[in-house]
Amino acid sequence: MEPKFKAKLVRGRQYSKFVPDGAQGDFIVFKHGVAVTISAETKHHLEQYAVDPVQTTFSTGEVEENYECKFAFEELDESP
After folding, report:
1. Measured between alpha carbons, how far apart are the two ends of the chain, in Å?
2. Which of 44, 45, 70, 75 is 20 to 30 A from 2, comparing alpha carbons?
3. Which uninterrupted H or E stretch holds 42?
């Protein structure tokens, strides 16, 4: 069985992701601080594309830009 995860939006107020489902599709709407159950495939997509650029400026004047995911994830325990 494919693992399931809880995704909680921690950066931003709302985020929508289109999830294809056969001929139709649907949106998952994430709201800040509210955990939503997702598949491993959706988690991978969010880790890759739902990111914010974050700049760090050092005392030397050097600026470093990194990308941080908008979500925090927790794997669900499937044991009975």
Report:
1. 14
2. 70
3. helix 40-49
List all residues 6 or more positions away from 66 whose beta carbon is below 8 Å from its beta carbon.
53, 54, 56
pTM of the model: 0.79
DSSP state of 49: H
Residue 33 per-residue DSSP state: T
Give the integer Cα–Cα distance in Å for 50 and 53: 10
Provide the pairing of β-strand 24-31 with 35-39. unpaired
pLDDT tens per residue across span 14-62: 999 987 765 667 889 999 999 999 999 999 999 999 999 999 999 999 9
